[in-house]
Amino acid sequence: MSKISPPDLEEQLETGPSPYVLDIRPREAYGRSHIDGSHNVPVYHDLRSGDESELRAALSGIPEDRPVVTVCKAGIVARKATAVLEDAGYDASTLGGGMRGWNGYQNGSLGYRLTSTLGRLLP
Known about the structure:
The chain is of the alpha/beta class. It has helices at residues 6-15, 27-32, 44-48, 53-58, 76-87, 98-107, 110-121; strands spanning 2-4, 20-23, 39-40, 68-71, 92-95.
């Protein structure tokens, strides 16, 4: 299963072709903060409990001709969404660190910089 870092996603969004960013968090969380141009399909709680049916039902609204990047709070539940998408034939990846990682990257936080450095150093 593939993962994409916040800097790599930002570069793809700026230079194109842009991936389809699928934010699976609840509507309230999406409303507070989200990646510009992302699309909200609020299936976080369903996937967390093991229910893939709502995401599978929403697949018809997700383009098949673009890579898809799944986003959740920290990147853990989004991996389940990525697995469902890959199973359905999509070119999908998970945003490493989820919105926490994205916001940390955008804000240049020390926590993000440390985590990203450790991630490059450790296998």
